[in-house]
């Protein structure tokens, strides 16, 4: 060890390294805030892009909300919509990873709580006309949430 390095200590008991365990409720809140917060930001940016395009085409400001509602299904079938879906999936992964990293204990329990919250929002926001794509994306979202927790667990164990 160099004299210029900060002293460190190995904290172990029975060959097991100790790791800080965070507050699980706070971990869930962090995961929720990252996932849903960034998803809302992405949706807002996409909505502003659609609104700017509609205004450029001559749609009046008073009709803008109705036109966005009519045009939105077309947007979701476009590259912008697919990009928004990928971004939303990434935010689910990132939220679960950060929650698992903060909790640093019982990562899959944290992931299960986040997945249940996600499913609850999907059920609450779904309309009777929702197709298979909505439910497929919900399933992918749940899988990605568990992937975020798994990524942290694997990194914590040294990438076994």
Descriptive account of the structure:
Strands 1-2 form a two-stranded antiparallel ribbon. It is 72% helix and 2% strand. It has 5 helices and 2 strands; from the N terminus they run ββααααα. It is an all-alpha fold. Helix 1 packs antiparallel against helix 3, helix 1 (24-56) packs parallel to helix 4 and helix 4 packs antiparallel against helix 5 (132-156). It has one domain.
Overall number of structural domains: 1
Main sheet? 2 strands, antiparallel
Alpha-beta classification: mainly alpha
First-residue to last-residue Cα separation: 28 Å
Sketch the topology as an H/E string, one letter per element: EEHHHHH
Q: Specify the number of helices.
A: 5
Strand content: under 5%
Tally of strands: 2
Shape verdict: elongated
Q: What is the typical, i.e. mean, pLDDT? A: 85
What level of helicity do the residues show? over 70%
Low-confidence stretches: none
Rg for CA atoms = 21 Å
Strand arrangement, major sheet: 1-2
How would the blueprint of this fold be written?
Layout: E1 12-13, E2 16-17, H1 24-56, H2 64-76, H3 79-103, H4 107-125, H5 132-156
Features:
single chain; 160 residues; mainly alpha; two-stranded antiparallel ribbon; 5 helices; 2 strands; elongated
What is this entry, summarized?
With 160 residues, this protein is mainly α.
């Amino acid at each position: 060890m160099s004299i210029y390095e900060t002293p460190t200590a190995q904290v172990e008991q029975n060959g097991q390294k100790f790791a800080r365990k965070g507050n699980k409720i706070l971990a869930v809140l962090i995961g929720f805030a990252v996932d849903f917060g960034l998803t809302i930001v992405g949706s807002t940016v996409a909505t502003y892009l659609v609104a700017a395009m509609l205004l450029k085409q001559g749609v009046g400001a008073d009709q803008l909300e109705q036109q966005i509602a009519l045009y939105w299904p077309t947007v979701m079938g476009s590259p912008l919509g697919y990009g928004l879906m990928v971004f939303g999936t990434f935010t689910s992964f990132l939220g679960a990873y950060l929650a698992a990293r903060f909790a640093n204990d019982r990562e899959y329990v944290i992931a299960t709580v986040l997945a249940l919250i996600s499913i609850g929002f999907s059920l609450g926001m779904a309309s009777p006309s929702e197709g298979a794509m909505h439910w497929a994306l919900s399933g992918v979202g749940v899988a990605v949430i568990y992937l975020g927790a798994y990524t942290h667990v694997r990194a914590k164990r040294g990438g076994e």
